[in-house]
Amino acid sequence: MKLKATPLFAMLSLLAFASCDKTEEVIPEPEPVDKTVVFQVFGNQNFSYSQYAEEEITIELLITRTNRDVADAIETVVFDSTFTMALKEIPVRANRIVIRKTVPAVLDAEEDVFIGTGYTYRQNSFGKNQTFPAGQQEKNVELTVY
Question: Is the overall model pTM greater than 0.70, yes or no?
Answer without folding.
Answer: yes
